[in-house]
Amino acid sequence: MWWVGLTNTPRQDTKDYKWTDGTAHDDTILPWKKGQPDNGGYGEHCGEFWNRELNDDNCDNKRNYICEKDKYWTIPVNTPPVVIKTNPTPPTRATTLSTSPASSGPTTTLAPPPTIFIPIATRAGVSYVSNSRNIFSAGCMSSMTDCSGKPEGDYQNCAGCSVYATCAVSGFYTRPCPQYLKWDDNLKSCQFRSSTCFGP
């Protein structure tokens, strides 16, 4: 059960639930449990998220909570694509060239793999950084020098997507994400997909 910032106080009934920003609750987006809200005991005026639905409960009960945060960045409009050149690998496509009467048969050459163009959104005012294996759309940190002027905390590490950097008074630390996860510098956590690191 989680508090989600939904209440109808100072009312004393089951109507007019609103989010903390004043927006009215929409049942089609996040429905109430069947029979809820019921204002049980005449003291339930806060919405809690319970088993994928809402339930009303006493606002004084201690619960974990879910907070809404502003996005760290917005997707820029008309961002030029970042060019990713594929590594030289054994070619996979064959091209038949014209033959002359003197040749013994068609000549086959192997074509190189194509260059891939992928648009990558970056934070406004921040240019992307890349190394030989990864592209960091929000920049990255590689040493204590990069921590200068930054608050203590966790940041994208230039060593790769599966690690992150911690800037602390005691030093610069490289920390691993759990297996199969990548650091997302917008969310400040390890995620299955990262919006700030592209690569292995």
TrEMBL record:
| Keyword NADP attached | no
Spell out where the chain crosses the membrane: none
Q: Give every C-type lectin domain span.
A: 1-68
Provide ranges: composition bias, Low complexity: 92-110
Recorded hits in Pfam families, A to Z, give: Lectin_C
Q: Which InterPro entries match?
A: C-type_lectin-like, C-type_lectin-like/link_sf, C-type_lectin_CS, CTDL_fold
From what organism does this protein derive?
A: Dreissena polymorpha (Zebra mussel)
Name of the protein in its database record: C-type lectin domain-containing protein
Report residue spans for region: Disordered: 83-110
Query: Which keywords does UniProt give here?
Result: Disulfide bond
Q: What is the lineage of its organism?
A: Eukaryota, Metazoa, Spiralia, Lophotrochozoa, Mollusca
Top-level taxon of origin: Eukaryota
